[in-house]
Design a protein that fits this description.
Helix content is 36%, strand content 33%. By secondary structure, it is α+β, with helices and mostly antiparallel strands.
Length: 109
């Protein structure tokens, strides 16, 4: 026997579960290497036993993130590998900011 939405909401409220639709225009989930960008998603906030959970539904676009390298890291790689600033920046970006990996790559290890 299917429940109508009002009955479902009433039952959930009795169990201490609240659901609210949020009027979101965009949701961005950032990871170390990329961003997942949801445009005009359906976002539901679910509160149960004092814990808030968000449910995101919709299509998204994957955007690769540009790795930011610090000036100190660039100088260190330049000194250790004996390379130009451009080479050090390129190696650090390819190594996703990992100094050891950048140095090994530049030194042919």
């Amino acid at each position: 026997m299917p429940l109508n939405p009002k009955q479902m909401k009433k039952m959930m409220k009795q169990m201490g579960i609240e659901m609210d639709e949020l009027d979101a225009e965009e949701v961005i989930i950032r990871t170390r290497e990329e961003e997942l960008v949801f445009k005009n998603p359906t976002v539901t906030k679910i509160t149960a036993k004092g814990v808030e959970t968000f449910q995101i539904a919709g299509s998204y676009e994957v955007v690769e993130r540009e790795v930011e390298v610090s000036e100190e890291d660039v100088k260190l790689v330049m000194e250790q590998a004996g390379v130009s600033e451009e080479e050090a920046v390129k190696a650090l970006k390819e190594a996703k900011g990992d100094i050891a990996e950048a140095l090994m790559k530049l030194q042919g290890l």
